[in-house]
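SEQUENCE, STRUCTURE TOKENS:
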Amino acid sequence: YQRRVRGTRSNNMSMKLLVLAVICTLALGHNFTTCGDDKLGITSVDVNPDAPIPGQNLTVTLTGTPTQDIVTGDTLTITVKLFGVALGHVDFDSCKDLGVTCPVKAGTPGVALSAVYKIPSAAPSGTPITAEFTAKTSAAAQYSCVDVPVVMGKPGSAEPLVLPFIN
């Protein structure tokens, strides 16, 4: 009887630790890797919704402490890649489109760059893609690159799918 009670306590503790780990992972933001220099000093990435929905807006926020100034003329490009092949890209003016007031001095902590993009309705749901974020100067010199893996979500449907019968 004592072993069973101890086993139950151990299982309860394991479950609590698992839940805590999941909560901590969610609080830390989305996974990302650097793909070159990272002078934006990215410390966290937030993707909302976490599984982008075709036909809906996607908001991605990169937060960090830049090690170089962000100035007028800088751009942030999002390139969508499927199996490493670029499918398309969209460019944002770092000072006009991302919610920051320029210039942003190097060393400024907690700088949040937020890009909003409408996912094309034709985007395939359930597909793992990589969103590559590259920051460039007005002279097109790249100074930061971050890859963010995401899996496309499924759009909600107002009407059920009806397939015709073939006689």
